[in-house]
Write a structure and sequence with these properties.
The structure is a homodimer.
Chain A: E1 2-10, H1 17-28, E2 34-47, H2 53-67, E3 73-81
Antiparallel strand pairs in A: 1-2, 1-3
Chain lengths: ~80, ~80
């Protein structure tokens, strides 16, 4: 059964304090070479039928209205085959 | 420049209250057909050099020690080409 994944990330121009906190912690844990870290949300949605274009259009609307804040976040909707 | 993405999701057997909250809200907003929603975190890491196997091994360690809680979360590390 395929599932639909919605990735929600802060817009590039928006400050990402969580990402900055992780970026700051990495050298203290001995990790080098990381120039930037951004943290967002990942949603996995499962459906009781096939995932067709109509379902993907619905998920776009869900992402726009519920899963993300379009003022400060971007989202990407994609289908993922489950193992 | 490629970036490394770390997806962190609650383990299947772990209760996911955020996912359940979204699942409960969808019908109230007029969305039907969704049988399950799980919410996790997505990290995008950028590096000042090439992303090779050594870097990916480091990211696995970052995911294990900082980005996820291995007791209740699973993580997946992958390379993503940036547009």
């Amino acid at each position: 059964m395929p599932r639909v994944v919605v990735d929600v990330m802060p817009k590039p121009e928006i400050l990402d304090p969580q990402g900055k906190a992780v970026l700051g912690a990495l050298p203290r844990l001995g990790f080098q070479g990381v120039t930037d870290v951004r943290q967002g949300k990942r949603f996995e949605l499962e459906f009781d039928g096939d995932v067709d274009d109509a379902v993907l259009a619905e998920v776009e609307k869900m992402a726009e209205t519920l899963l993300s804040n379009p003022v400060i976040e971007n989202y990407v909707v994609r289908v993922e085959e489950t193992a």
